[in-house]
Write a sequence for this structure.
């Protein structure tokens, strides 16, 4: 390909004076594939240089034969080439043009960048509000104001530590929800900071609560972003995607800060204008954040995705793909599961036939369906695996375990990864001691 570009640039003058046509054949041996490009240069009817690339990539199959599917591609224009050399290589993962990222990556990055710009604008306004509330507008910041500024940082950091200890594994089970809630928490923190301009006497509690919200937001965003990046890394380039995500956020934050600074010079210290500006920035930030999170398609199962899949199978005998589920799953609003996995054992034994029935069913199928608070509960044995959990949830929602194996096979065919799942919110299982026939 590099040779073709050199031919295009150096041979431009030669081709214009010599009405000729030349072709270059390039081949690259890859693992299981033979990449072939035929680059064609010629003079068009308008006298301009025309170039095109025919991609004849062949997949090597058994017996040494090749299945060839020709695809016509065009070389990038000088403008796109300049962008790729000087901008894209610093902000996008290597090989992004050739499938190194998931197909939803660019939609995610586009909306995420706009959200980051809007978030940076909001942060400029909210920080300016706190500075005015702390006394910056009246001259030098007093000692009491400086002390309050330090205290609100210390109190806020404690909130982030407590939040991390409570959430634990839920980051992996539902990263979309936590990523969106992180953005919502950040905007609520900005709103509290803006309120200090209206209530300067309550600067310390408002600023401390806002800083606590910021720490919670940053922690939740970084934890959930790791799962999102792992999904977008189609070729194992997680480190590259994470590094480029940092560059994208830095550039977006710089742009947003610049916009915010320019607008703030026009707004001044008027509380009403500041509140309106923060509100407008919040709407843009949350809207774009919602769209970028919606674009990510996870192939791992959690309880919500599995229940959506079972519902669709029960109605149409069709298994949705991860991309189709990503368009209908809920993450901005609370989702109430239809089946309670791991209910309190003491509350279900009186309505499920006692210990003997429980022991018999758990030893036979590793799960036991019970009635729980007017709903359906699913008890799991300590030895239950992902397949057993899927069968138990399938049986609970359809009323029959018939076709459960076919459903699991269809899940794998549709692109779902069953090697790792997050179906259980918290692992509460029944341990059966067979020597004593007790739980």
């Amino acid at each position: 390909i590099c040779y073709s570009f050199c031919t295009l640039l150096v041979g431009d003058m030669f081709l214009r004076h010599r009405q000729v046509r030349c072709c270059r054949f390039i081949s690259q041996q890859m693992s299981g594939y033979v990449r072939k490009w035929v680059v064609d240069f010629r003079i068009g009817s308008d006298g301009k240089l025309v170039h095109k690339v025919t991609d004849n990539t062949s997949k090597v199959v058994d017996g040494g034969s090749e299945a060839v599917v020709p695809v016509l591609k065009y070389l990038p224009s000088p403008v796109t080439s300049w962008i790729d050399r000087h901008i894209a290589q610093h902000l996008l993962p290597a090989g992004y043009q050739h499938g190194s990222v998931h197909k939803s990556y660019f939609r995610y990055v586009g909306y995420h960048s706009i959200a980051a710009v809007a978030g940076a604008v909001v942060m400029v306004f909210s920080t300016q509000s706190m500075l005015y509330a702390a006394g910056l507008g009246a001259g030098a910041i007093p000692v009491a104001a400086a002390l309050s500024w330090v205290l609100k940082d210390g109190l806020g950091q404690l909130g982030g530590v407590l939040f991390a200890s409570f959430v634990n594994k839920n980051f992996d089970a539902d990263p979309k929800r936590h990523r969106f809630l992180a953005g919502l928490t950040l905007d609520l923190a900005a709103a509290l900071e803006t309120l200090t301009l209206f209530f300067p006497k309550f600067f310390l509690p408002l600023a401390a609560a806002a800083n606590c919200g910021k720490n919670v937001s940053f922690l939740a965003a970084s934890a959930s972003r790791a799962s999102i990046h792992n999904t977008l890394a189609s070729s194992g380039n997680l480190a590259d995607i994470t590094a480029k995500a940092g560059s994208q956020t830095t550039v977006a934050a710089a742009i947003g800060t610049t916009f915010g600074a320019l607008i703030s010079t026009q707004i001044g210290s008027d509380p009403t204008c500041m509140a309106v500006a923060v509100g407008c920035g919040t709407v843009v930030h949350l809207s774009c954040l919602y769209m970028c999170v919606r674009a990510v398609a996870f192939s791992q199962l959690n309880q919500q995705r599995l229940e959506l899949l079972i519902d669709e199978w029960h109605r149409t005998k069709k298994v949705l793909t991860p991309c189709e589920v990503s368009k209908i799953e809920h993450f901005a609003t609370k989702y109430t599961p239809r089946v309670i996995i791991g209910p309190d054992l003491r509350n279900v034994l009186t309505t499920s036939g006692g210990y003997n029935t429980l022991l018999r069913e758990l030893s036979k199928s590793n799960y036991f369906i019970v009635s729980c608070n007017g709903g359906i509960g699913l008890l799991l044995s300590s030895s239950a695996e992902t397949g057993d959990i899927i069968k138990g949830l399938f049986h609970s929602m359809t009323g029959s375990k018939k076709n459960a194996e076919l459903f699991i096979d269809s899940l794998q065919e549709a692109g779902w990864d069953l090697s790792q799942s997050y179906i259980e919110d918290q692992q509460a299982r029944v341990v059966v001691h067979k020597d004593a026939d007790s739980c």
About this structure: Residues 1-36, 56-75 have pLDDT under 50 and may be disordered. The chain has 16 helices and eleven strands. The first helix runs from residue 2 to 10.
